[in-house]
Amino acid sequence: MATNKHKNQLAQTVRKQVAAAFRELLSDPDAGYELRPAFEARLKKSVASARAGRTKSFAEVFRRFRV
Predict the structure, then answer these.
(1) Residue 21 in contact with residue 14, Cβ under 8 Å?
(2) Which of 9, 23, 31, 53 is the most buried (most CB within 10 A)?
(3) What confidence tens digit (pLDDT) does each residue in 10-63 have?
(4) What letter does residue 34 receive in the DSSP assignment?
(5) What's the rounded Cα separation, in Å, for the pair 30 and 55?
(6) How many distinct structural domains can be found in the chain?
(7) How far apart are CA 60 and CA 29, in angstroms?
(8) What is the DSSP letter of 31?
(9) 20: left (phi over 0), alpha (psi -120 to 50) or beta
(10) What is the per-residue DSSP string for 16-54?
């Protein structure tokens, strides 16, 4: 049977691993990088299309292609 010391060590290890997993999942791997001009232009075009209502939902695309 595990002693309280071992249980505490295990709990501490689990907490550290969970915290590390959350940090990895929630971090931004692109932080500090600049957008390339071509990508920035595509992004602006995409945002403008969405605002103008020229985009389709996944459901619409799936229906069209019978997915």
Answers:
(1) no
(2) 9
(3) 999 999 999 999 998 899 888 888 989 999 999 999 999 999 999 988 899 999
(4) P
(5) 26
(6) 1
(7) 32
(8) T
(9) alpha
(10) HHHHHHHHHHHS-TTTTPPPPHHHHHHHHHHHHHHHTT-
